[in-house]
Amino acid sequence: MNLLINNSIGIKVKNLFRNFALMILCYFIFFFLLRILDIFIFDLDFTKYEQIELMEILEENPFKFIFLAAVAAPIIEESIFRSILKPTANSLKIFICALIYLLGSILIPEDAYWALKYPLILGSAGLCYYSLGELISDESFRKICYWFHRYYLVIWILGAILFGFVHIYNYVDSFTIDLVLIMMIVPRIIAGFFFGKIKLENKSLIWPIFLHSMNNSIVLIFLLPYTLSIN
Q1: What's the pTM?
Q2: In a domain, 182, yes or no
Q3: Which residue pairs, CB below 8 angstroms and at least 24 apart, start in 180-188?
Q4: Which of 69, 71, 76 is nearest to 95 (CA)?
Q5: 117 belongs to a structural domain
Q6: Looking at the domain assignment, is residue 9 inside a domain?
Q7: Average pLDDT of the segment spanning 124-139
């Protein structure tokens, strides 16, 4: 792929918005084709799956929803799915810390105060990051990075697909798969592809985090005014 030769911040910012525009264009193309297929072939019922839990969070606590959608989710999800895409030693540490963060968020009760819960887990992950640097040698990190670099294309594509399938749980409590759900997660797979693309091009994990946050912010722009108007 055409990697950026110029490492200036301005070029990388332009590339961020370029990938954002391409991603949105792919969304439009997908939904256009899906609409045609739905009318003439499938006749799918998209109303049988709804993101009920997310909508409840949005209605009950909009600020929590904004934090989760625009900050927490991009950081954690990109730290898991894109940190091992042509990684550095630091991004490998971030990957392990993200897994610990995810485990902590599962173990801590859901009704725990969110503004305390997430900083506490984040602090624990930060301590883990420091510990990994002290316990694992630089040579070990280099060997692991070499392996991941060698298979970056597989990691990129599989990461995008897995990223999409993980979002099935936005709609169902246990893993279920049918044509409707597949169609509903295709936009996530498209997003995962572009998140990986900009990681490779801009060569830093911060860029897919930014792109992910921009992507989620589109939903916020459309949903927040409606939610606030009915509260």
Answers
A1: 0.85
A2: yes
A3: 180/44, 180/45, 180/46, 180/48, 180/49, 181/49, 183/34, 183/44, 183/46, 184/46, 184/49, 186/30, 186/34, 187/27, 187/30, 187/31, 188/163, 188/164
A4: 76
A5: yes
A6: no
A7: 84
Closest CA to 76 of 47, 57, 96, 90: 96
The domain tally of the chain equals 1
Alpha helices in the chain (DSSP H): 9-37, 52-60, 62-67, 73-81, 89-107, 114-135, 138-150, 152-166, 179-202, 206-230
Measure the CA–CA gap between 172 and 50, rounded to whole angstroms.
8
Q: What is the pLDDT of residue 206?
A: 96
Burial of 19 (0-12, 13-18, 19+ CB in 10 A): buried
CA distance linking residue 166 with residue 146, whole number of Å? 27
C-alpha separations of 112 from 77, 83, 89, 123 in Å: 21, 28, 33, 16
Residue 209 has pLDDT above 60, yes or no: yes
Rounded Cα distance between 198 and 18, Å, is: 10
User: For tokens 């295709």, what's the residue?
Assistant: 186
- Name the residue with tokens 């610990």: 100
pLDDT in tens, 30-77: 999 988 888 887 777 777 777 666 667 667 777 878 888 888 899 999
Select from 98, 97, 93, 92 the least CA-distant residue to 78: 98
